[in-house]
Amino acid sequence: IASDRWSCTVRIRREYDDDKGDKHDQVKEETFGKVLANPEDVELAIRRAQKAVLNPGKPAKDFLTYNFDSKEEAASNELQFSRNLVVLEVRGMPYNLTLIDLPGIINSTENEDDTHLIQLIRKVVKSYISKPHTIIVAAISCKNDIDNQTVFALANEVKEGKQRTLGVLTKVDQIEEGCHDGWLGVMQGEKFPLELGYYMVRNSTKVELDEHIGAEEATWREKTFFEESTALQPLRDNKNLSQRLGVPSLIKMLSDILVQKVKQQLPDMKQSVDEQLKKTRTELAELPPVVQEKERADVLQQALRSLDRDAKLLLNAQGCLSSKHFVQRWHAIYEGMARRVFSTRPRFILLDADASGMVEASYGDSKDFDGDDEEGSFPAKLTLGQVKDIVAKERSYELPKFTPYTALQSVIQHFQGMWNEHAFQCLDKSAELLKTELNIIIVKHFGRFRDSHLESIVRLCMEDVVDQQYSEARKQITLLIEMESTERQPPFTLNRHYFEESHCRILERMKAEMCKYQMRGVDQQVLRQDVANALAALARIPGFQGMTQDQLLALKPCNPDVGEELPIMAATMAYFKVSSKRYVDYVALSITRLLYVRVAESIEGHVDRYLKRLSAEAAAGKRESANPLLLMKDGQADAGASRQWQDSEVVLSLVADDPKIAKQRGSLQAKLESLQATRSVLSRFA
C-alpha cells in the first residue's frame, strides 16, 4: 500500500476448519504481534506466524517469540499443511499491489502418510488461480527444465488461465554456461509463449541472505548483474525486453496490470457487490430481531397469537397459497375415502355362468360413482343362488310372495363390512397431515427458540391436542359405523324419494338385462326394430310417452323363481346409494369438526395452560432450571392453572435468542460491513 512511511502488519486469517476442511461461515482474522518498522524483521515474523497456523491447537500468541533452534522443526507441527493464511500488509511502497504466495506444487512425499497433501495442495492452488480477476505469476527457476513445469498444465485447466499467466524466471545468475539461449528464447516468446510474457529476476544468494543485506543493496546488486551480464546482452539490446529485467520492473508491471484489470472490471465488480449487499440485507431482514429481556413476555404472547391465527387460516384456506394446498390435500384424503367406500358397492350375478355366458348387475347409473374401483377394496359378488339361500335361511312364518325383511338386512350387511377400515384410514391420514402442517407453522414462529426447548414444548402441546381430538373423532366414526350397520339396527332413511326412485330404476334395468339374456338367440336387428315399433305405438297412449327400451322390457313378467330375489338386490343397491353417500359425508364432517376445527381452536389455550403450570411449579420451588420438557410426561394438571406465566422467570427464560441465529446474524452483519467497505473502496477508486 502506498504510504510515506514503511511498515508491515502480520495477520493470521482463518478461513477453514483444519480438522474437517470445511469453510467457516465467518472469516476470523487476528493481528500477529506488533506493527513492524524494519524490513529485516519480516522474515522471522512470517515464520512464526506460519508456525502458529500449523499448530491451531495452541494460541497464536504463544509463537510471537518462538525460537527456531531444532533441526526436527517441521516434525513438531500439528499439521503439515493448512489452507489458512498468513497475511502481510506492507505500507510505504510506491505501488498498490496484493500478492498471494501459493504453496509449491509437489508430485511426491517422503512419508506415505502425507500423500494426501499432493492433491490437497493442487486443489488449493487451483481454487485461487480459477478466480477470473487474478493474475497467475508463475515462478520458474532457471536451474530446472521449463518443460517439466506443472504450473502451465494447471493454468490450462482453468478458464482463460493461459491468458492471465505471467512468467517470472528466477535464479538467472545460476544458469549454466551454454544454456542461456534456451532461456533467451523463452523471454523472446519463441518457447512456451504467454500473453503477458516473461520477466527475469535475480534472487539474493544464501551468502547475501546470511549477510542480511537490505532491500536497496539487493536491488543495486540485481541491477548491476543485468547491466554486466554478457550472456543477457540480447535482452538489453531489445527496447521491450530490457524493461522486463529486475524486481522493480516486475512490481511496476504487476501494479499496472492490476490497475488496468480493476478499471476494466470495475462496473461488474460494483454490480456484484451491490447484488451481494442486497442479498445480505434481505437475509438479515428475514432473521428474527434480537429479543430484549424486557420484551420476552410480549414476544412469547405474540408468537402464541400468530400460531393461533395461522392455524385457523390454514383450516379456512385463507391468507397464503400454502394453506390452499393444505386444504386441497385434506379434501383429497376425503375423496380417497369416498372412492374406497363406493368401491364396496353391491355386485350381483343375475344368472349363473353356463355355456352361453352370464349377466351381472351393479349399482345403477354410472353418474352415482366418480372414479375407478380401487383394486381389492370391494367384497365378493353375490350370485342369484346365494341370495336365494339367504332368503331361505331367514324365512319363518311369512306367507308366500312375502320376503323376510331380515334377508334384506343380511344382504346389505355383506357389502358394509369394510366401511370402518376405510374411515379409520382416512382419520389416520388426516391426523398426520394436520401434524405436518402445524409443525411447519410452529417452526415458523418458535423455531428461533429451539435450543431453549420452547419449540419442542409447543410441538408436544400440539401433538397432545391432536391425539386428544383424534380419539374424539374416532369415537364419533365408531358411532357412525354402528348407526349404519344393519347387524345392530334395521336399514333406515327418510330420503324416501331418492331411495324409491333408485330402487325402481335399478329393478327395471335388472329385469331388462334378464329379458335381453333370454332373447339372446333372436335376430338382434329384427328385435331392435320390433322394440322401436312397440315404443312408437305406446307413445300414442296417454301416460306412456317417453318410455325407454329398459322400461318396455321390464314389463315382461319375471320368472317366478326370481320374483323375491330381484327386488332384494335392487333394494340393496338403492339403499347403498343412500347410506354410502350419507356415511362418507358424516365421516368427513366429523373429522373436520372434531379434529381440524377443535385442534385449531385449542392449541393456544393448551400451550397457555402448560406455561401456567410450569410457572406454578417454579413458584412453588419444584422447578428452577431443569428441562421443562419433563413436565409433559405428567400430562395436563389443574394445579396453578390460574397463575399467570408473564412474570415467571423460568417461562421467560425459554424466550432466549437461539445461539445459532445469533451467530448467523453476527456473520451476516460482519459480511454486510465488509461489503459496505468494499463498496466504498470501489467508489473511491472510480
Task: Please render the helix and strand layout as text.
Elements (H helix, E strand, L loop, with lengths): L6 E10 L6 E9 L10 H12 L31 E7 L24 H14 L6 E6 L8 H8 L7 E6 L9 H8 L10 E3 L5 H5 L4 H14 L4 H5 L9 H40 L9 H21 L4 H22 L4 E8 L2 E6 L19 E2 H11 L10 H10 L4 H28 L7 H31 L11 H23 L5 H15 L10 H6 L10 H55 L29 H4 L6 H27 L1
Helix pairs in contact: 8-20, 9-10, 9-13, 9-18, 10-13, 10-18, 11-12, 11-18, 12-18, 13-14, 13-18, 14-18, 15-18
Could you please describe the fold and organization of this structure?
With 686 residues, the protein is mainly alpha-helical. It is built from 20 helices and nine strands. The strands form three sheets. A three-stranded antiparallel β-sheet has the order 2-1-3. Strands 4-5-6 form a three-stranded parallel β-sheet, sandwiched between helices. Helix 8 (247-286) crosses helix 20, helix 14 packs antiparallel against helix 18 (565-619) and helix 15 packs across helix 18 (565-619). It starts with 6 loop residues before the first strand and ends with a helix. The relative contact order is 0.08.
Instruction: Order the strands across the largest sheet as they lie in space.
Output: 2-1-3
The gyration radius over C-alpha positions equals 45 Å
Measure the end-to-end span: 18 Å
Task: Count all strands and give the number.
Answer: 9
The chain-level structural class is mainly alpha
Largest pleated sheet: 3 strands, antiparallel
Write down the overall geometry.
elongated
Strand content: 5-15%
Write down the secondary-structure element order. EEHEHEHEHEHHHHHHEEEHHHHHHHHHH
Low-confidence residue ranges? 353-358, 363-371, 633-642
**Helicity range:** 40-55%
The average pLDDT score comes to 81
Total count of helical runs of at least 4 residues = 20
